[in-house]
Amino acid sequence: MRSEVVIIGAGAAGLSLAERLCATGPSSLSVRLIEAPPGPLRPPPRTWCFWEDGAGRYDEAVTATWNRMRVRGTDGQLVDASTGALRYKMIRSTDFEAVIARRLAGRRGPTRTEATVEAVEGTADGADVLVRTPDGRQESLPARWVFDSRPLGSLPRARTTLLQHFRGWFVRTPRPVFDTGSVELMDFRTPQPERGLAFSYVLPTSPHTALVEYTQFSASVLPSDRYDQALDTYLGDVLGIRDFHVEAREEGVIPMTDARFARQSGGSVFRIGAAGGATRPSTGYTFAAIQRQTTSIAAALLAGRRPLPPPPHSHRSHAMDAVMLHALASGRLDGAAFFTRLFSRVPAERLLRFLDGATTLFEDLSIGLHSPILPLLHSAASLPSRPLRPSPTP
After folding, report:
1. What's the whole-model pTM score?
2. What sign results for the dihedral spanned by CA atoms 227, 42, 296, 51?
3. 151 conformational bin, left if phi > 0, alpha if psi -120 to 50, beta if neither
4. Domain assignment present for 325
5. Is 326 within a domain?
6. pLDDT digits over 75-84, tens only?
């Protein structure tokens, strides 16, 4: 039986689209959600952070929120700023999945299929999704529209690609040591790579608990034990916290690239989420862009229009990100000094809206005046002559 919509992948993008369609769509809109079986193709638990003004659609899944953020330079310089009307929010994927499951259970939910997608083939008026079930059977699932959120096998060619690679510890301490009123967004009191940057990140969820992450933007990942060493050093030597218990871990690699991601891979087949370019090249944030993507897709489907996902980021944002990435990768730009300077001179709320692509051209220019002009101009001038190269595999 043909579905109107097949969604491949039950991560943030797939679940967000399924929830929106089943919450607002007519009963005649049939939706099938294909989730990978347990194993390497199913994404591990992870944490998503984003900011928004006031109450949000998924507040039920939010672990914690903050309206202040701190940035610390390599010399310990502290920038402590209010986020104004915006709230910085943290969602754990397991909580998000539970909320979506409860909502879909109370409505006309999608048909869920656990299977491995082997191919997606176009047809005259849609596509066939070819899958293999956990018991080894092959099936063909026809659809009018297919939305594919699976990670790409290889990244598009790009002029510059850095990797944001990180490991986080969910820690618990016997004493109350964390300030729940503020998030440590970037703490640069850690050795910096020659090209790129490194920082630690603290999301306090109670006076006794926090997610503490070590992150690098660089050309390649580190040996596994280096992340644990960096976290142990940061907690003990920088924060002075030596008595703690690690309750859980998370890690990942996020490509930060000026590549252009195709939003369509067939006449009726579209890419969503990170596979469709939702990750912001300069920061790695993805969740907010996914919500914009899925909102637009759902509105188009419900209006009977062709549901091509919109560009996740504006051309202006993409161009500015490309220059910043090239400046970091070339070593022209001191990343730690750059971000410390921005947060010290630009109101945090405006800077967060800038990172979400929600600022005006005038606001973008005013932010640019607080940036190191010469390294960025040099990078902007040399960028067009750089050839497109294969991107490293995350």
Report:
1. 0.93
2. negative
3. beta
4. no
5. no
6. 999 999 999 9
